[in-house]
Every structure is written in structure tokens, then in C-alpha cells.
Amino acid sequence: MALLVIGGVAAGLSAAARARRLDPRLEITVLEKGPVISYGACGLPYFVEGRVREARDLIVYTPEYFRKERKIEVRTGARVIAIAHPKREVVLEAGERVRYESLVIATGARTAASGIAGTEQPQVFRLHTIEDAERLRAFLGEKKPKNGVVIGAGYIGVEAADALRRNGLRVTVLERSQDVLLRRDPMLTAAVRHQLESHGVELRCGVGVGAIEPDRVAGVPADVVVVAAGFKPNVELAVEAGVELGRSGAIRTDDRMETNLRGVFAAGDCAEVNHVVTNRPAFLPLGTTANKAGRVAGANAAGGRERFPGIVGTSIVGIFGVGFATTGFSVEQARAEGFSPVSARIEAYSRPRYYGGTKTTVELVADRASGRLVGGTVIGEDGAAGRINVIAAALHARMRVDEFEELDLAYSPPFSPTWDPLLIAAQQLKKSCR
Amino acid sequence: MALLVIGGVAAGLSAAARARRLDPRLEITVLEKGPVISYGACGLPYFVEGRVREARDLIVYTPEYFRKERKIEVRTGARVIAIAHPKREVVLEAGERVRYESLVIATGARTAASGIAGTEQPQVFRLHTIEDAERLRAFLGEKKPKNGVVIGAGYIGVEAADALRRNGLRVTVLERSQDVLLRRDPMLTAAVRHQLESHGVELRCGVGVGAIEPDRVAGVPADVVVVAAGFKPNVELAVEAGVELGRSGAIRTDDRMETNLRGVFAAGDCAEVNHVVTNRPAFLPLGTTANKAGRVAGANAAGGRERFPGIVGTSIVGIFGVGFATTGFSVEQARAEGFSPVSARIEAYSRPRYYGGTKTTVELVADRASGRLVGGTVIGEDGAAGRINVIAAALHARMRVDEFEELDLAYSPPFSPTWDPLLIAAQQLKKSCR
């Protein structure tokens, strides 16, 4: 039995490690096209910012670690150019062929930026790999650019804007759609806009970029440009091998993370997962999902029988010290998914005012007919991550608003007010669910 | 229809306000024995510490507010000395009789300190009312005591120790039992001890105090003493009126917060509530529970039909900057409740180390046979409240460990690591549940 994993970041390494746990004798090989493995891609903006001093601090494990401690062969610089599934082998760029009995495709995603001309200029960067971040940081130090443009207002985009601004640049974010953070949610967009603009970052929505000029983008002066738009799953290898895609364009899998090809699994930013709120496939590429789905893929690729129940779409991003956290669906998204959404939005203090609480916004979204919670948003300086996670747990449990309202949450002045903002929002929303 | 509420702090005022919402014309009177209403008793230690400057900052509402804005008559200094239920009236200390059709008993609790001699000396304080806190703070300012002893290592006890220590005193906490924070949990006690002692506060467990001497307590030098032990529900009025108590000694109610007497409700620190994990009555007097149960009592006293599903026993206390949070049962408590508990305890970083994460301890307790979570503990400098609340939500939802392990929790370096400590603990615990 031999397991081959394509991709050495979150999903791929989770799969390999989990397979090893289940089968101490399985032959496991991980092929990574880049020079390093196991890096926290989500940490790159903090390296650009300067908060993280050394890029190597973002690397969690080395190939040597996997070789020695896990007996997993990890090969870097090993780019796969084809999967020949009938023969159960992959072809490397150099011509070498590697056999497998089971295969985990964890090829990740890329910032495609397709349709944008001029991305090959020296002042244009992506923020996807450690080398990307090192090149950008070196450029900031050497060229001392004054005006930065970020294309795309997704997570990496707003984090990059925050990082550039903290380096003293004037920063403009250009976003093709009307929404930020990949969520159709005017309230969230307005809140993010307010936070960016009150820290000197301009946000322009509805601006599609056709070309990056040497000194400007869409009319905005720019001597450094970060392209953080057009996130696309790397599925070409899989498609050529006969792997089917879902409607999102990412690889379709069952709840064991197996593709339509027997013995071929997929996980991470290249694959769909089940959305627990709708019980339908979704493409929400995040590191946490990659790790969880990767584990399940690895377990099953090693002969186990595990299932991945799926995600509820929880995420958080920090913008100039405020957390913007979401889970499940916004009102607009819930409607598109077939719910009849009702929502309540409240502003309350994160802690008693006498203990220095700050204003926290909570929005809860429920399905009017069933009263079931289907989403939420929390925005605040402190406690946003904890609060969104409580909503996430409620979504997993298919909790109704009236049940959520009764949650016995922790109270003590240094941590929260007597009525947690979550419960105040639930009390409001309950009135709309009758 | 006339509603009378005895007690003007958390439960009583929640009941009155909720009753008003349901019935705009109901005659509602609140009788409070003390001089002020609606104060955050949980904030008293922070006033003693000096962080909260003015005691009045702890007062949320005034009687005038209730009179004007809610049309609720609030009488302070109105001590009830008897409930004459057959006549449906209460007797005040001054002899006055007040009629009711429905009654909410929210008489709270007290620090009984029964069996301790010498509590009437000038250097001995309680920390139950605003006057208690003001007297203690004045004493600290005027007498400049050097050695403080706190009797009782419950929430108020450890918070008082923290507050005294921050005022420069040498502090010793004496606790009769072997446990702190009212929880049979050696791990928690060890962690609290370590935190107290590393900040110069001595903790002595298993020390029963018979008498407070003028300059010492149980052999420990003491020129100021805070009695925070022997918390007892104020049930005497209720008992004399024929209200039955539960096994805990607090007032027994049904899930509508009604006592055995028709039309007489009880809520707050004088009453039991349902424990969701066991579905049995429990006495866990906390402000959050008082508010929630008070609302239900008020709604039903006003003719509504609401039920209070109950609590899971969530609480948190801050000790020198670290949050100690618990919910559900410890291993020892779970065993006493008839479960066959298994547990896992892990230590992990609250955020990636490159982003300044600090060590967080998570313990999860489950029932071996069913795999159902029955309790948890989180100890950490940041994120403890949010994390305990996720466990609390899981207890409400009767979640199993394998379900909890799959929770889609928010991740971003400023807020949490890729694998949240909660999920790492669940992965560990799952191994014991098979």
C-alpha cells in the first residue's frame, strides 16, 4: 500500500500525518512543488507588516521533521504535471513517475488575476507563498513606495492593506464587486469601509481592473500593487485525470473526501466541502477547513472510514485592531440559499462600561418559518472570535433562536456584560420569528 | 391584577421589567430592603481594587428610572418581614401591608458566616452590597492595613484577594474545603493556587475558621478580613409562607419558576434552577441566571406562559489577568452525578506563537458510554470566556465529543491558532470515548 499526496501545506500534510497515525507501516510520500512546506499562509500579511520578523517563523514543520518523526517522505520542488490514474501514477516535471495506490489531491488554489494585464511588472506582488511575502517586504524596504494599491477586498486583500498602511503607505483597495470579504452583506461592507477609511485606507467597490500601469491602477497612483483577487482552485491536474468538479469549479467529493475516482481523495483549497447549514456542497477555502478535511481524506486514503460532516463558513479577519467575524449566511446569502431570512442587529458593550467595554456589533440571521439560526456577524475590538464561535457551534447544532437566547454564557466584568451581546441580539431576533 | 416583587437587584428587576413588557397596564411594585437597587454586585471587587472609581458607576438603574420609564413602583428601604399568602399580602417592617395577586420572591442570598465568631469587629467586612464595598474601601484608605485575610475561595473570595493584593497588602485566602471556586476539581484548584501564589497571595485549603481575632485569623496575621464564605439563599420568608425548598436548601420551582404555591414565583440567588446537563434541579447562584430566570418568573407572574430550560453552570473569574472559566461538571462532579466521566486536558497556544499567543489550558469532560460532553474548563490570559462559551453552547445542544471536534471555529493569527485549543482537547478526548 502506498499513499501519495500532492501538496505540502495544510490539507496535504494533515492528510499524510493522519494516514500515518492510522497505519504505521503505510508508505507515504508528499510532493510539494514549492521550496518549503507547512507554512502559515495566513501569517504572510503579518510578515509584510513587520510584526513577524522572520519568514521562517511562519514555517511550522520541515521536511526533515516529517521524515524523521513521522516517517513520511516529503519532496519539495516536486511539481506534478500529470496524474495517470489508470496506471495509478503521477508524472513529475522532470519526467519521473511516482506510483500510488491511493492519492490525495491537495493542490490548493492560486490568485489567478486572469484578465489583468501588467501583473509581471516588478512592483506587482501576490501574497500567496513565503517567497511572495519576502519579495514584497524587500521591495518595501528598498524602494520605499509611497502609494499602494490592493486589488481585491477579500481576507488577504484587507490584511495586506492593513499591513501596507502600517508601513506608512497611502493605500487604496479596489474591489470588483460591491461586497468585501466574499460575503454579500451591505452592513458588513459598510463596517469594513468605515474601519478602513478611519485608518486612512480608501476602499473603492465596483472597480474592475483591466490593467496595471507602471505608476497607477484604475487611475489611482500606485508604486506598489498587491493582487489579491481571483482566487481559483488548482484543479487542472485533477480534471485531466478525470476528476469531476462541483458547481463552484472546485473538486467535488463525497463526505469521505473521495472524488468520483475510486482511491482518489481531495481536500483543501482545491476542493468543495459540505455546508452544514444547507447540507449542500460549498467552496470556502480556508486553512481550518483544509486541515479538517485533509485529516479525513488521509484517514480514508489509508483505509479508514471517516466522514467529514462539513463546515458552517466561520471566519474572522482583523482590520486595524477590530475583528470582523462571520459564520453561516448573511441575509442576502440566506435568501439565495432558499431561506426566508429575518435578522436583528444590535450594538452593545463587550464588557460593563465601568470595566472598559468597547462597542460590539452582533447580527443574527434566522429562517423565519423554523426559527433556526442560519448565520451571524460579530464586529468588535475584543471577544469577536469567541462570540462568532458560539454562533458557529449553534449552527452546527441547528439551534433555534429561542434556544440560543437561553444559552448560559460566562459572565464576569473583566470578560463580558451580564447580558452578553449575543443574547441581546437573540432577544431582538426572537421577536421577528413569531 | 397586581404584581409584587420582593428584591430589587438582578432577578427582581428582570421580573418586573419583563412583566411590564407583557402587560402594559399591570400594577407592578418592587420592594427592596436596601437603599439602592440594580447594582452590579459582581463589580464590587473592582471598586475595592480601585479600578472602578465611583460606587455609583456600578448602579445600572435608579428607582426613578423604573418609575418614569417603566411605570414600575420601586420602593427602597422596604423590608418585608412576612408573606401572608392566604391573604395575598406581605407585611413590611413598619407594619404596612401590601396586597398582591401574584408574587415574585427574589430575596437573593447572603454571606452567612455562621459559626464564625468575631464578625462584628470593625476590621471585618463582607462584599455583598455597595455599602459593604464602600466601607471596605474607606477602611483601606484610612487604616492602611498591611495584612489581609479572605475567608472563602469562591468567586468573590478570590476576586477580593486580587483586589486587596493590588492595594499592596499581603493576602492569605483561607478555604474550608479542599477546592476553590465551589468546584470539586483538583486541577482547577492547583491552577488557581499557582496563579494566586505567583502573585503573592497565599491559599490555604482545609482551614475552617472558628473565630476572627482582633489581629489574626486561624493564626494568620490580619488587620483586615473579608468574609466571603457560607453563601446561603434567603429563604426564611418563603419557608414561613409555606414555600417548599429543594434539596439544595434553595427554593424549588418548576420550569415556569413557580413555587409550590400557585401565583408565587421565585428566581435569582434564592432559587434553584434546572441543570440542562442532568435535567435535575441545581443551586448555582449567579447574576446571569438571576436575570434569565427572573424574566421567566416575571412573564409568568404577568399571566404569560414561558419556561426556563435551565443552565449548564457556566462561570468565569479573572485572577491577576488570567481567566478561569468552567461549565458543566468536573470529572469528580460528573461522577457524583452518575456519569462515567472521561477527560482530556491539553495546553496549547491561544494564538500562533509568531503572533504572541499565550498558553491556554483546556479540559473537556465527557460521558464515556454516550460520548456526550458534560463539562469543561478553560484557563488563559486571552480567549477563555469565548472558549468556555463554545463548550457551554455544546452542553446546551447535548453535543458529543466527535461532533464537537468538527466545529468550524474562526481562525486568523490575531485571534486563534489554526487548530483551536478546544479542538485539540476534543481530539484527545475522542480517543478515550471509544
Computed over alpha carbons, the radius of gyration of chain A is 23 Å
Tell me, briefly, the overall form of chain A.
Answer: globular
What is the overall number of helices of chain A? 12
| Greatest interface (CB-CB under 8 A), with counts per chain | A-B, 64 and 64 residues
As a percent range, the share of strand residues of chain A is 15-25%
- Structure class of chain A: alpha/beta
- Spatial strand arrangement across the major sheet of chain A: 3-2-1-7-17
Give the fraction of residues assigned to helices of chain A: 25-40%
Please give a structural write-up.
2 copies of one chain form a homodimer. By secondary structure, chain A is an alpha/beta fold. Chain A has 12 helices and 24 strands. In chain A, the strands form 7 sheets. In chain A, strands 3-2-1-7-17 form a 5-stranded parallel β-sheet. The interface between A and B is large, with 64 and 64 residues.
Produce a short descriptive summary.
With 434 residues, chain A is of the alpha/beta class. Helices cover 28% and strands 25% of the residues of chain A.
List the helices and strands and how they pair.
The structure is a homodimer of 434-residue chains.
Chain A: E1 2-6, H1 10-22, E2 27-31, H2 44-49, H3 63-70, E3 73-75, E4 80-84, E5 89-92, E6 97-99, E7 102-105, E8 109-111, E9 124-125, H4 130-143, E10 147-151, H5 155-166, E11 170-175, H6 186-197, E12 201-205, E13 216-217, E14 220-221, E15 224-227, E16 231-233, H7 236-240, E17 264-266, E18 273-275, E19 280-282, H8 287-301, E20 315-319, E21 322-328, H9 331-336, E22 341-349, E23 359-367, E24 373-380, H10 384-396, H11 401-404, H12 421-432
Parallel strand pairs in A: 1-2, 1-7, 2-3, 7-17, 9-15, 10-11, 10-15, 11-12
Antiparallel strand pairs in A: 4-5, 5-6, 8-16, 13-14, 18-19, 20-21, 21-24, 22-23, 23-24
Helix pairs in contact in A: 1-8
